[in-house]
Amino acid sequence: QVQFVESGGGLVQPGGSLRLSCAASGFNFHSSDMSWYRQAPGKERELVGGISSDEYGRNWADSVKGRFTISRDNAKQMLYLEMNSLKLEDTATYYCNAGYWSPKFDSWGQGTQVTVSS
After folding, report:
1. Average pLDDT for residues 67-85, to the nearest whole number?
2. To the nearest whole number, what is the mean pLDDT of the chain?
């Protein structure tokens, strides 16, 4: 079955950096667009950014553009999110899923918590 396992979150000060990882399985990863999402307490889940299956395409939420980088390793079926210049408002639980503008699958992983605090 489709499975996502996110990791790499933690507590970081404003201006700091983190690298998130997502291990995906149960579907054709190398031919799937992939995306990161996040959900802050009391808010709906939102798209952070996506990467096309051929790695040439990227899309970003305006709030993270220029600060976050997304990459993938098709051989390992891994998705990554490099987050720099973190802000308090980046605090959320981060998830990955297939798809470019919207999640392809209804199933989600447990997510990884990112807390930006001084």
Report:
1. 97
2. 96
Q: Cβ distance 38 to 27 under 8 Å?
A: no
In sequence order, which residues have a C-beta less than 8 Å from that of residue 74 and are 6 or more positions away?
29, 30
Distance CA 91, CA 114 (A): 5
- Region 69-90: mean pLDDT is 97
| Residue type for position 2 | V
pLDDT above 90: percentage of residues in the chain: 97
